[in-house]
Amino acid sequence: MSGTVEDSMTERVQEQAAVNDGLVLFGGNGDLALRMLFPSLCFLEAEGLLPEGLPVLATGRSAMDDDVFRALVREALERRAPEAVATGAADRLLARTHYIAADVTHLEEFKRIGVRLQALKMSNPLFYLSVSPSLYTSICQGLLAAGLTSGEARVVMEKPIGKDLASSRVINDQVQAAFSEERIFRIDHYLGKETVQNLIALRFANTLFEPLWNNLTIDHVQITIAETQGVGDRWPYYDEYGAMGDMVQNHMMQLLCLVAMEPPSDLQPDSVRNEKVKVLRSLRPIGRAEVAQNVVRGQYAKGVVGGQQVTGYAEEKGSESQTETFVAIQAHIDNWRWAGVPFYLRTGKRLPDRDTEIYIQFKGVPHSIFAGESRQDLQPNSLLIRLQPEEDIVLRLMNQRPGLSLDGMRLESLPLSLSLKTVHKTPSRRRIAYERLILDALNGNSTLFVRRDEVEKAWEWVDGVNDAWRRAGLPPKPYAAGSWGPAGAFALIEREGRAWRED
Questions:
Q1: Which uninterrupted H or E stretch holds 362?
Q2: What is the pLDDT of residue 422?
Q3: Dihedral through CA 147, CA 149, CA 150, CA 156, nearest 10?
Q4: DSSP string, 105-172
């Protein structure tokens, strides 16, 4: 199902956009590049999807030559992409991979980068900023000063962009001074996941679902992003962003938009992104008067995760902190389709399971004809869209339980799975989300990337919640590591007769 949607998105944009003739990875020796980006490139090379002969230039502060860097990348590929290495793809990719040491905070360094690009015959490269967001502006200013941003040159930026609306606007303004908006690709790797793309196909390629996708038949929606890991030595970053800036403004807002958006006129990038922006504009603000009732903040304390004793966030940092590592929100979208349907958002660190899912619960049947004990078995239909640890889409329907009984018809809820792993026996490999996104960026397809107004509308809403917390003086509530957050997170949903979906 997703293949048809992906092919359509790629083919339509390729008719209009030029393909980049090189890839420049800033932070090319960093964790993201070695864990995700180079393995993704290697898999794309193995499948023949990269532009033929595409040169790759990585930059970093560490001094090393091409051979040392290639050995570093090969080691990462052997761990993360052994199947592709076995095909010879790593040899072909590494033969075209080069490295240059550069301090991107100094403008003169970009002249050296420009000379290297000229030698590699890159005239319209894709610049991938796999670095701290604090370096985005200096890199783009350096590229502009060196005359490297003209033509079809594009830039990819990892989110979050800024730590609030004001800082996001500053970064966007300075990046747009170097690259026009259509050449800026703001990446959210969740949008590269197969199941997220399948959500588009599920909604808009099936007459079964779209007529039901509204407040007449849907009771509520839950979006959960749960992580078992703590913050650890990343606490300086987390103390600046918190769960609201790191997860809610970023991944959760994108998942919310894909669930709630109106059908786009087509799959052109702006058609899809226009509808996502409309959702963000309809998202009801949460102010000081509503924040205590609609939002729960938490911070993990010491506890047990996976049978192991772990420390709390304050202990990892070495001091007390007001940073939230858990957020639960009851949100509302004020438009005709979703009026009265609550959206429950939940994300946190040090939770019992690593799980990312969208759960849509439909309303119960208006009248039950099943008497006696069978009435107790009647459950509303539901749709579960699971992104991790395994990607799956599960529709639960009521069915008669086999067997004879004097108590009347007995019912049970049974799952119908749309698991790609089950349906498509090959390939068995689970695709890295960055594969789709790198391929689309190289081909100028921005459908699965985030436009500036999306980023800023999301920050505007998140800033409102953060400001309401500050003015109301609401500190994060402690929760034991290995639990599902503070008690208030359960009260948030249970006071309306609902419950969080848990295995």
A1: strand 355-362
A2: 66
A3: 170
A4: TSTTHHHHHHHHHHHTT-SSPEEEE-S-GGGHHHHHHHHHHTT-S-TT-EEEEESP-SSSHHHHHHHH
Judged by phi (left if over 0) then psi (alpha if -120 to 50, else beta), residue 290 lies in alpha
DSSP letters for 238-254: HHHHHHIIIIIIIIIHH
Catalytic position from the list 98, 189, 220, 251:
251
DSSP-derived pairing of the beta strands 392-400 and 411-417: antiparallel
Between 19 and 14, name the one with better pLDDT. 19
Query: Mind listing the pLDDT tens digit for each residue in 84-97?
Result: 999 999 999 999 99
Query: Band of the pLDDT at 180, cuts 50, 70, 90?
Result: very high
Amino acid 372: pLDDT: 61
Q: For residue 435, count CB atoms less than 10 angstroms from its CB and return exposed for 0-12, middle for 13-18, buried for 19 or more.
A: buried
Residue written as tokens 């793309």? 197
Would residue 332 show up in a list of annotated catalytic residues for this protein?
no
**pLDDT score for 407:** 65
DSSP type of residue 352: S
- How many CB atoms lie under 10 A from the CB of residue 177? 13
Residues 6+ apart with CB under 8 A from 319: none
> Which pLDDT tens digit goes with each residue over 472-500?
999 999 999 999 999 999 999 999 999 99
In order, the DSSP letters of 17-70 are SPPPS-EEEETTTSHHIIIIIHHHHHHHHHTT-SPTT--EEEEESS---HHHHH
> What is the three-class DSSP state of 325?
coil
**Measured between alpha carbons, how far is 174 from 177 in angstroms, rounded to an integer?**
5
State the Cα–Cα distance between residues 68 and 101, nearest whole angstrom. Answer: 12
One-character DSSP codes across 364-432 = PPSS----THHHHH----EEEEEEESS-EEEEEEEEEPSS--TT---EEEEEEE--HHHH--S--SPPP
Distance CA 204, CA 271 (A): 14
pLDDT value at residue 453? 96
- Asked whether 476 and 324 are in contact (CB, 8 A), the reply is yes
pLDDT tens for 185-224 read: 999 998 988 888 888 888 899 898 889 999 999 999 999 9
Name the more confident of 32 and 367: 32
**3-class secondary-structure state, position 479:** strand
User: What number of CA atoms fall less than 13 Å from residue 143's CA on the CB side?
Assistant: 29
Q: What is the largest CA-CA distance in the chain?
A: 86
Give the Cβ contact number of residue 495 at 10 Å.
10
pLDDT in tens, 394-445: 999 888 777 776 666 778 788 888 776 666 655 567 789 999 999 999 999 9
97-115: per-residue pLDDT in tens? 999 999 999 999 999 999 9
Query: Which domains are assigned to the chain?
Result: 19-151 (3.40.50.720), 191-211+224-360+431-494 (3.30.360.10)
